[in-house]
Amino acid sequence: MDGGKPSEPWKGKTMNDNDKENEATTGRCENCGSETATQDTLQCAQCHVTLCESCVETCHDCGDDLCPNCYVNCQCGETLCHDCALPCSACERMLLCSDCADRCDVCDDPLCHDCEYRCENCDCTLCYDCVYDFDDDYAYCSDCWNSRRQEPCYADSPCWLKMQEHKHMLTIGLEIEVNGEHDQSRLKESPLIAGWCTDLSLDDEGREYQTRILTRENFDAIDGLVRGIHIESAEPDKAGGHMHLRRTNRQTPSRWYWALKGLSDQQARNLNMRHTSNNRWCELIHGDYAGKHTAVNGCHANTIELRTFARWDETTAHKLIPALEWASHMWRHFESHDLYQLKTADIMRESARSAYQTPRTTPAMRLSARKEA
Asked: What ranges does the record give for the region Disordered, renumbered to this chain (predicted)?
């Protein structure tokens, strides 16, 4: 002993002194209870408990050390701290890491793969609230939706107020599909066009144009518009034309079925119709008046739709006025007879007669129709 101090450091210490020194140089893992050298212990970044290396988990996104009580697992199995775990903003069930979370490109909300939508046009990511509109279950963002369509406002048609006052006034609307490259500006800027859109049945450059509500006064103008439609396409016949006629109590799908049934093959072709050629887009089936594959569609509340027409452009424009005249005549014929006053044979006969006498049909067209009659 030197100066009253023990010559060996361990001598003179009590058991409690040794325990305190051991505690200072080791740490107990709160998870498994094992003793680990202090320099080898880790601390949970969330609750600050001591952990051994075997019990610690690391956050995939921020790299923090975590105890088993302070982490969650992403759907992919990665470990996440509570600060980094992103709940899906739509279902709130999925907790997502940065690799698995998609972000809505509009509002930046996190989304799981099950809840995200993709814009059909630009492929941007969208949450449900930021989908601007759906078309046949395809989602679109606002920019792409507005660039691919203009919704028609038929109340802007000059005849709108007049037709509200005259319930038996004939009005007609056309849907003009164009498949391929064409002068879109000419059609979009025409005062005869109320709206336009793309269509999944058409190529990328294809468009469908909806006319405003037309009366006989517009026949020459719409004829001129159609004559100027020039198309560059290898498949122009993918397009078709639809005619909407004002619906009244006397305008029924079955009456229009018999009107189409009364036309011969040649008469139908003269009017640019396809229902006599077994075209799958306009099948003429008695009693089947609903959907996109019927020649007569009676699903619209305000119009009867004839879907039988082929494309309208410079190659078929000479048939447009005859088709409009025939439809106008049959509409007035139906309007002048109460329901059940006309027999099917009478309707078919009147339809064929009207098609033969339609103004602007050429002598050759009338001769071919006479040979078939």
From this structure: 1-24, 353-373
